[in-house]
Amino acid sequence: MSFAEFKISGIGGRDAHRWRQASNPSRPVPLSWGWPGLAAAAVVAFIGLAPPTASLHGTDVSGSHVLLLVDISGSMPDARTTADPQIQAMRAAGISVANRIDVPGWSWGSGAAYSFLGALEGGISKSPLVDTVYIITDFTAGDDQGNDAAGLSRFRQLLARRHLRLYWCTVRDPVPEDYRRIALWTGGGVARFSPGGTGH
Q: Which backbone phi and psi does 129 adopt, to 5 degrees?
């Protein structure tokens, strides 16, 4: 959102340039403005830093650069038709989809055949601007049986080190509670895919 699109009641005219300065971190805010002025300046600065948000299936997905992981296992025959409308909705909201990576399943196991962990690590290393991870899967077939403590540690460390938001999008079964907790821990969330619509 640009300065021109954001209006604070009672501010305008000769004072307008002050709010432009407030949104520029290289220019200090004069202490003579007082607490009301400083508070308003903080609001403008926050608005300028807030990432774009897309509503996907009732869940607000925030991020500037999204890394998309799509489960293409045998239980996901419609992976492309599931992913494409969501990519379009993100881009329409101003979110850049930095890359799309196909993964064999939804396990975070360090050595599991259906693990997404290695693909995620590789995608993150090649995409330094990524701030959000969005994973589309069905949470079926028991892939989590391959999860282990070593994989979970790598997964959490990667999310924390890069300050990444994590979102799960399920196309079939409910998101397991331990997966949900990790998403919420990062400031992300979960969505349930509904054919024929991406949001509200």
A: -90, -10
